[in-house]
């Protein structure tokens, strides 16, 4: 009697967290006529993919990057009936990398479907194992992080997130030396909470300040508090630690995914814009005091409405207020042009497009502030 191979999910769950790519590759060898395989993971800037099985090998090529961007499998036919299959490694919309499988036979639709299922299992295992081994961190980092950046990356919820009614993505720069800018999100049922922060100051002190604020808001949110209570608890925590000498500019949003209604607490410099069919408008909110400026800070919500297919962009002051070389603020017109150029891109690609446009706007002048961009598509 022929013994069927164990499901790849079972094999990955039983494997040490640092050996997942090897276990997946070995399963491929036992299951298919295999010529080779490679697992590629994205770098922190989401602009290149790097090999895990052969860490001394070159970065991924054009086709793998296309799969990473499109999030669709791609079959590249070779000679003598061989096929190279490339598949996205993605969990809940969070793009991790690409799996490349070189087969010694043609890859028909059923084979691609089977390989995509394997890639999904591998992506889920990689996401679960990320904090139990440094192997994958080392692949994604192409240079050493500052201590401030280390704190910020450890605090992030993820890079992108998809649901039935929304697509969401965020990006920070400079990736290896950021300071106090940050974003956070959480979805429960029909409620999506989104926060963009700008901690005052530079270096590790700014990162520590933001860490206090983010964890205070998470503590309140996970206890069932609304965004007003989240802002007030965070403000109290920051003031208790810094006595008003430092503060955190913050925009808190709670989005009802069932009808697009948004409640906002505007406590500082992050700005929100809405794009719809090429038209871009700023969300007008009355600004309240940043978190931690005074003891017993109190906040009020304001409301605005999203329409189906609206794109909501939230940016820190390192984006909208950037004035490199004395140029007009990036948010005055260049940001609107960049946002219009993302109409056909999903949020995970759009944040990169806007960030590249920001770098181009600096035209060789070094960025003097870190920057956050978060993009939400409400699909209804």
UniProtKB/TrEMBL annotation:
<dbReference type="InterPro" id="IPR001932">
    <property type="entry name" value="PPM-type_phosphatase-like_dom"/>
</dbReference>
<dbReference type="InterPro" id="IPR052016">
    <property type="entry name" value="Bact_Sigma-Reg"/>
</dbReference>
<dbReference type="InterPro" id="IPR036457">
    <property type="entry name" value="PPM-type-like_dom_sf"/>
</dbReference>
<feature type="domain" description="PPM-type phosphatase">
    <location>
        <begin position="163"/>
        <end position="378"/>
    </location>
</feature>
<protein>
    <submittedName>
        <fullName>Phosphatase</fullName>
    </submittedName>
</protein>
<dbReference type="Pfam" id="PF07228">
    <property type="entry name" value="SpoIIE"/>
</dbReference>
<keyword id="KW-0378">Hydrolase</keyword>
